[in-house]
Amino acid sequence: MTRITTENYREEAIKGINDPVLQKALANLQIRLGRGAEEAYRNLPEGPGLRRKAHEIRMKAVENLDSLLERLSEKIRSRGGHVFFAEDADAAVTYCLETAQKHNVRLAVKGKSMITEEIGLNDAFAAAGIEVAETDLGEYIIQLAGEHPSHIIAPAIHKTRSEIGLLFSEKLNIPYTTDPETLTRAARKALREKFLLADMGISGCNIACAETGHITVVSNEGNIRMSTTLPKVHVAFMGMERITARLSDHDILFRLLSRGAAAQKMAGYVSYIGGPRISGQADGPDEFHLVIIDNGRTKILADEEFREMLCCIRCGACLNMCPVYGKIGGHAYGYAYSGPVGAVVTPLLVGINRAKDLCLGETLCGACKDACPVDIDLPRMLLLLRSKLADGDLKWNVRRDNTGEKILYGIWSEIVQRRWAYDAMLSLSRKGLRLFTGKEGIISSLPFFLKGWTDSRDMKPPARESFIRQWKKSENQRRVK
Amino acid sequence: MNDNGQAKFINNIRKALCVDGKKARPDFFCLKSDEESIEESVLIFDRIGNRSHSSRLQLLGKLIDAAKPVNLDVIPVKSLPAAAQEIVKLACEKKPEWGDAKSVALWKHPLIEEMNIREILRKHDIGIIFSNQPDAGKAERDRHIKESAGSFIGITSADYCVAETGTLVLKTAPGNERIVSLLPSIHVAVIKLEQVIADFKELYTLLDKDLKDRPEGIENGMIFITGPSKTADIEATMVHGAHGPREVYIYVVTGD
Predict the structure, then answer these.
(1) Within this chain, do residues A180 and A53 fall inside the same structural domain, yes or no?
(2) In whole angstroms, how far apart are CA B253 and each of B55, B72, B74?
(3) The pTM is what?
(4) Is the pLDDT of residue B1 over 50?
(5) DSSP letter at A433?
(6) Are residues A225 and B178, on separate chains, in Cβ contact within 8 Å?
(7) Looking at per-residue confidence, does A459 or B216 come out higher?
(8) Residue A304 domain-assigned?
(9) What does the pLDDT average to over B174-200?
(10) A135-189 residue pLDDT tens
């Protein structure tokens, strides 16, 4: 199983905020990709409203998932491909490992895939003594450094060129350099050897097409094309929701995916793969396996309030706009998915109580909804998760998170329903607060739990009389005149 | 029967969607496309079919503009022999990336045969790599891949080229290997002006028609290529030639 560290959200977030290199990288990324995507949506011939159309396409696919997956697997099997349905991460990992062992695989090359992070494939292969080489340059850097990715499409943004230069000179035996082009060439050379040697290629799937029976993989580097073309066995993993009905649906989806992910009009490479090499073909794998994974997704599907989340195509656009992600970075989210998408998906997959800080940490500003190429209402679901934490929920097995807060709001609700009680409370707190006025007529520290408010800000003491009282007084004076 | 967990898996989905497995829902794929979209595709076909030479040249202009930001070179040429000449010139100018020997990998494709480029390249002492054995064994295929990996130019054609984005669309077929547009340091594609289409709407309308006319259409896979391989993974600095070709040239034969 993959490491889940959602409990360390606070510590990791503080670490992120205090890391000047990360802060610079995140700011740069959000300006380049976040604003770039915004502009790319605006420049769509159909306008940004196309995102709504994409949402409808995705939702229709999710609501017909059973027949779409049946069609996809039937088509792929008819071409001699293998399709395996995995209910959980273990089943998926075991299937892939057994396939590797059957073919005596010693080296597998892997294209960047979030789902293999989710199921913890690399650790399982390492434990079985099979090398898995990450081939996306960012992922490769992260793997050499023994770290975890911090962004869906830019996994190594937290590393500087001099860090990468040192890492490459040590691990790849090249002279130290900070030139990105020279460093990229070194990785190109090292990984090309692996591509040509590997016995197995591993990939994810961006958006499958049920009608024609293809998976698609998208990249800019060409590493996924290498991994799916050269080794004799190709194993592709897909979350069960990553499918659409018709080929023509891809027109809108790929244009939006490219814009959302990298502010491009179209990604560098898109490959449609429908099975193994056919006779007469000089390249392509002899065996093709597709592993379709549930791993908690049917539970999301069953809840109509969260079903929308399955429209997500994991492009990372929401990360590039989110003010919280933009400060704390990806590691705080403690699982494969970071940013707003992680703040909703991770609690649903690993447990809402366990990953509560993720949805409590977001601001509900709505930037993620505007950034989403398929117009998913992430703020609505963040709020829904919070309400489940506040009240507890049987269906999702959520314990009430903060009983003190609940009691306080219970009292508050009783007070605001009674005019006299509300007035009494206001007058009492006005008097109470004024007691803490410091030297310069400013309140700069409060006792007990109120301390949280004054820890990072000063406040003016409240006026001696409430606005309503003052208003009434002045009205009376006017009348007297 | 071993269905690799399919029945149970699909059943779980049906339960989650609250649809009864026994009660037949209309088969998703038997549903007729709505009339509006049929009308639209008819219009698009007409548009592509009746496109005049001058509006095709306009599309070519759009393609050249779209190519610039993705570092793609689009070069109009009058005829196939002219394309061959240009490509040979390129092959003579460029240095190989791996080793000293120059070799070029080629598709077995009517357009490339017609260029007769193999002969000219041989005259310039440039090696030729192409797959000539339809049912080659594993060892032969491995050798072919290794040779292609050492080549510095790969020459393909394409099925379509989308002007809006500069995207080449290559269907995979025997003789039209994927590696030729992937392993060499430079990818060269030769297409005719008629293969340039306006946008992805046109592309998917054509692909839909291909599905009906030739069921093998994209059966065997398809690749979209938009410019050379690139990465921005080191401090967001753009570098071309991460794993795939470092340069891509499209020669468009205009025929006038």
Answers:
(1) yes
(2) 15, 17, 11
(3) 0.92
(4) no
(5) H
(6) yes
(7) A459
(8) no
(9) 96
(10) 999 999 999 999 888 887 888 988 999 999 999 999 999 999 999 999 999 999 9
Residue A183 counted as domain residue: yes
Whether chain A has a CB inside 8 Å of the CB on B169: the answer is no
- How many Cβ atoms from other residues are within 10 Å of residue A172's Cβ? 13
Contact A156 B222 (CB under 8 A): no
Q: Which fold has domain B54-253?
A: Rossmann fold (3.40.50)
Determine, for residues A69 and B13 on separate chains, whether the beta-carbon distance falls below 8 Å: yes
Chain B residues touching A137 at Cβ < 8 A:
231, 233-234, 242
Domain parsing of chain B, residue ranges? 54-253
Given CA atoms B191, B197, B201, B206 in this order, what sign does their dihedral have? negative
Give the per-residue pLDDT at A306.
98
pLDDT of A337-390, one tens digit each? 999 999 999 999 999 999 999 999 999 999 999 999 999 999 999 999 999 999
Q: ipTM value of the model?
A: 0.95
What distances in angstroms separate CA B101 from CA A366, A469, B94, one per listed residue?
57, 93, 12
Phi, psi of B186 (to 5 degrees): -130, 130
Structure token pair of residue A53: 């159309």
Integer angstrom CA distances of residue A92 from A88, A263, A421, B41: 7, 33, 59, 41
Residue of A nearest to B220 (CA): A274
Residue A386 counted as domain residue: no
Q: How far is A462 from chain B (nearest CA, A)?
A: 49
Span A213-251, pLDDT tens digits: 999 999 999 999 999 999 999 999 999 999 999 999 999
Which structural domain, as residue segments, surrounds residue A50? 6-299
Average pLDDT over chain A, rounded to whole? Answer: 94
Question: Number of helices and strands (H, E) in chain B?
Answer: 8, 12
Task: Indicate the residue among A299, A315, A348 that finishes a domain.
Answer: A299
- CB-count exposure of residue A264 (10 Å: 0-12, 13-18, 19+): buried
Q: Do A225 and B204 touch (CB under 8 A)?
A: no
The CATH number covering residue A57 comes to 3.40.50.10420
Structural domain contains residue A312:
no
Cβ–Cβ contact B43 with A under 8 A: no
Comparing C-alpha atoms, which of A132, A147, A144 is closest to residue A172? A144
For residues A369 and A317, what is the distance between their CA atoms, to the nearest angstrom? 10
Task: Note whether A77 and A202 are same-domain residues.
Answer: yes
Query: Which residue, A268, A299, A330, sits at the end of a domain?
Result: A299
Residue linked to tokens 């937290």:
A158
